User: What shape does this take?
Amino acid sequence: MLGARTGGARTEVSRCIDASLRCQSSCEQGMARLRAQGLPADDEAFRLLRQCAELCELNVRALQKESRLSRRTASLCFELGSQVARAAWLEAQDAASHELARDALHLARACRPLVFAA
Assistant: This one.
């Protein structure tokens, strides 16, 4: 079942799903803020947020479907969540940026047990 494929318990899978949904929403809100500021869609910050939002969505689907690839999507969320958290924290100019950094870091921490489980 799911626990065997991802190497994690159901509670860890649920945490990763919840964190993915929250981070996806934060990244989408971040893209909307960047768009409102006039940044083009091919800007590096915009692309990073779009990749994160899309990966979060894919990760949720993979985990919910008990996909054999769910461990890989969780691994990518761990890596990309860390990158987004760092970028958002370094660029933080308002409360929304701090929330994005928090949600991305929460994503990385929530998906980590699925990545490094035996």
In short: The chain has one domain: 2-116. The CA atoms of residues 90 and 109 lie 19 Å apart.
